[in-house]
Structures are given as structure tokens and as C-alpha cells.
Amino acid sequence: MLQAITFDFWDTLVADDSDETRRAALGLPTKPQARLQLLVDDIAENHPGITPEQIAEAFKYANQQFNHAWKNEHHTPSVAARLQNAYDFLHIPLTPGFAGVVRQVEDMEVMIPPNFVPGVRETLRELAQHYTLAIVSDTIHTTGKGLRTLMERQGILQYFRVFVFSDEAGA
């Protein structure tokens, strides 16, 4: 007999990248552009000899390393580990603003959230009356803490009894 149901967060409870329309309406760059700009601003401030093009190349390298770890090694490096790859690529130490850049990347979707799937609250409320509900999800940019915040704001956090996020589980 079925006793529990697990859900992924992205493209199950929310429409991934649905926040991009809202960002555009606010005159903001896309999330990838904003993440790159955060890195450019931080590195350029501390290492003026490094060009934005070099930083963009380092960012591309960091994303490639992330994708390899995620798709081939089945673990999700943290935002800090991912961005550190860019600094390593440029052969520079982490800057004093590095932690702030990491936080801004992690909070980007908390500040301007994606759209939840229509009817998700009602559906989860009904399912939670009959089954144990769990989330098992990757946290590519937004941490498990951030995803819980989004679920709490949407009024669905209380329906879940188990949470497994890749940044917390390490895989």
C-alpha cells in the first residue's frame, strides 16, 4: 500500500525560470547574466588587471565543472565551491567580498521567486491527509534553506514531513 510520495522541487512544484519574466519586467538581467555580473564586479574591484572577458571565461569554466560533477559524479557542488572554481581558474585568492557574492547568488530566487504550479497548495493539502509527503531535490543555486523559505511563503511547507536537499545531503 502506498504510504509516501516524494516530490522534486524544480519543474514539479514550481516552474523553473518562470521568474525570468518578472525579472525582465523589473528591468533586471537574466539570472545567468546577474550571476556573472556579481562575479565580474567582485573580482574587478579586487583585481583590476583581470578583464570582464577573462572573468566570463572563468565563470564558464566553473559552470562546466559544476555540470560534470552534477551529471557524471552525481553530486551537487555548493555555490561557494562552484564560484571558487572561477577564482582558481584565474589563479587568484578568494576576495573579501566572496561570501557576499555567494549569498547573493543563493538568495536570487528567494528574492524574486519562480511561480508555483497552479493548484499546488490544494493538491498537497489533500495528499498530506493520506500520505507522508517528502521533498527530494537538487539545490543548484538556491539552498535547501531558501527552498524551505519559498515553500513557507507559498503556504505548503507544513505539508512535508521529510526534506532531502542536495546541498544538505551532499549528493
Highlighted features:
171 residues; mainly alpha; 8 helices; three-stranded parallel beta sheet; 11% strand
Oligomer: single chain
Report strand order across the widest sheet: 1-4-5
Pattern of helices and strands:
EEHHHHHEHEHEH
Number of strands: 5
Q: Tell me the overall shape.
A: elongated
Protein architecture, described:
The protein is mainly alpha-helical and 171 residues long. The chain is built from 8 helices and 5 strands. It has helices at 19-25, 31-46, 52-72, 79-89, 98-111, 120-128, 144-154, 166-169; strands at residues 4-7, 14-15, 115-116, 132-137, 162-165. Strands 1-4-5 form a 3-stranded parallel sheet. Strand 4 (132-137), helix 7 and strand 5 form a beta-alpha-beta unit. The longest helix has 21 residues, at 52-72. The chain starts with a strand and ends with a helix.
TL;DR of this structure?
The chain has 8 helices and 5 strands; from the N terminus they run E-E-H-H-H-H-H-E-H-E-H-E-H. The strands form 2 sheets. Strands 1-4-5 form a 3-stranded parallel sheet.
